[in-house]
Amino acid sequence: GEETGQLDRVFDDEELHGAKVKVVPTAAPGTRFGEHYGLLMCTQGEAYGTGAVFNKMLSRPAAPLVLPSLAFFFLACVGLQGCSQRATAARPEFAPPFRVDSENPERLTVRDDLMNKLKFETVGQDDVQAALTGYGRVAFAPDASYAVRVPYRGYVSRVLVGVDDVVRKGQPLIELRSSEVARLRAELANAQVELKTERLGLQRLERLVEDGTATEKELMAARSRIEVLSATIAGNRASFAATGIEAGVGERFVLKAPAPGRVLARGVSAGELVSPESLDAALLIGDPSRLVVQASFPERDAVWLQEGATCAVTINALGGARFEGKIARIVRAVDPGTRSAQALCAPKLNDKRIAAQMLARVEVKVTGESKVLAPRSALVLRRDDHFVFVRVGPHSVERRLVQPSLRLGDYVGIEQGLSQGEELIVEGAVLLDGELDQAL
Fold this sequence. Notes:
Blueprint: E1 3-10, E2 20-23, E3 29-33, E4 36-43, E5 46-55, H1 69-81, E6 98-100, E7 107-110, H2 112-115, E8 119-122, E9 124-140, E10 145-148, E11 154-159, E12 166-167, E13 172-177, H3 179-211, H4 216-243, E14 252-256, E15 261-266, E16 273-274, E17 283-286, E18 291-298, H5 299-302, E19 310-315, E20 321-330, E21 340-347, E22 359-375, E23 380-382, E24 385-393, E25 396-408, E26 411-416, E27 423-427, H6 429-439
């Protein structure tokens, strides 16, 4: 009977792909592949001496040919009379492009012409050597900068330095007036006077105790008062020493530089009311010769970072200038928001144009134990699993589950699933994966 369908593949004529045709199965049928017919087609009086796979597009299976062989031969000859003499008498037979192995459902047999179009690469094994890339900013080393803050509430009288000034240790920076400082100084002076008086009284009391005129209880009370006054004086003096303020008299005091450096920022002006609770520091001072780069690395790469590893810093603001150094410190904690970890690269920054907060790119060279390496293009991701297609014969490939580890540029370390010397498909693996699933 006559059946209508659509051309699925035409091997020698791309223009006929998808053409609507009518098929009479008894008129010179070709090789049959399940629900497909291989046909020798005649169109517009000419015979296409090539094969086409015809998709029946029917839900029912193709009916077997029941005509007698003589009638079949007669109808076939009539169907070919209108064709050109260029049509060949022999019908070509065509193999399917892929065939699933009956014993191993993960294995495909690929037709020769398609096998030659696949690109393979041999699996290698080598020591892990990778360049990890992170991004960050230029900053001062942890102990190379400090903020000068006001220890007591007061008013700024004078700011004695400006931004970019170089200061030495102990140099005056800011003059201030504070009623709190005046009160503490007064309390310190009173405590010193009381202490002197109590000590004189203690000497007289000790003589009276010897004569029996005074009691031991009175002597112990006098000694206790002296201890309290001594502690108060020591505390006030320690407070002034910690802030660098002299224990003098009056409300004026001077903040001095605790270490040498360069003034990077100034946050106060003359006449301004300041306090220890102020968010901004009065001055920011740092050593410009001790700069580092704080860079963030992806979580998957952070586990391979090592202290002492070679790092290279590139600063685009300086025309891509590159500086070599070493990893000085690694923060062994991952930021939950960015899923990254920080590392400190200490390069030799010998360019005076470099300033804190400049953007920088950091490359770190890491070396690990020998691993099997596979091209990233060979991996096929299915949900949370990774697969590759391995050549297992001249015309056969096999889908195999692998466990990847570190990504090294265009390659991936493979923990298990592959061996050195095996051949992987690096182009077209995704298409084979789809064909295998459709066949299954």
